[in-house]
# Entry
Amino acid sequence: MIRSFAEWFEQAEAAGVSLAEFVERREVKETGVPREAIRKRIEDTLTVMRGAVAEGLAESATSPSGLTGGRSGRLAADGPRLLGDDFTTMLSRAIATLETNARMGLIMATPTAGAAGVVPAVLLTLAPLRGWSEERLVDAMLVAGGTGIIIADRASIAGAGGGCQAETGSAAAMASAAVTWLEGGDSQQVGTAVALTIQGMLGLICDPVAGLVEIPCAYRNASAAVNAVASAEMALAGLDFPIPVDQVVDVMGDVGTKMDVRFRETALGGLAATPAGQEIAAQAGMTELVQLQRKGRTKGEGSARFGPS
# Structure
């Protein structure tokens, strides 16, 4: 297992291979799965991603909760295109994937279901614009995977473990690393892209309304995709970040472990605990959740909270 970006970069350089090939070789060695089979699995992953996006954009029906569904298609069709068609396309694809997930459609967790829209939104939007072949996309997914492995080992990729910074933050970092590598960025620039991505999302809480992976998750996937591309852009331009990427990841892990339990996927704090959030939860039949929200029965109950005590 790759345990640090420094180790990954140093060992890949010493072996004279790309970051993607290093991850691929390590995967073959650790799993015993042939290279061709690994690449086929990644191709299948990309197929699932495309399908999830297409389904989300095409389906106008709402999810069972009514919280999502049809939003991505509306954005794709009626968005004002403030930064052009491609920007709007990327946002709509991120949301579409989460809408497919909310309707129990097939998605690819990258690295989780709650953050599954970020990587496909970024890579599938940029690929035709930048001329990336399918073979290159497979390589990019290996780079994204290597990034996710390190973050999972040093910090967390789960909202329950470290808040939304860990979930959509890790997905954005994976996308940013992949884009930077695809555009010819060296190891230092890949590391910078990851560091820039994560530092911009430090402290982001996980507060799913009614405990469902819909709101604010779908919109945060769109925001995370923007962060990923912005970070890659800055890194590729040669902008640096003074804190080494491994230290940035460690900080994310530290922040996550110190985050109040209400802000780690329990739906007991943040947007989920607002009066509107409680009403949505009640309408969804989450009566026990609403009671817990109102009583503030968590270890951080001395902190400010919404609703009656």
Confidence is low (pLDDT under 50) at residues 297-309. DSSP finds 14 helices and no strands in the chain. The chain has one domain: 5-263.
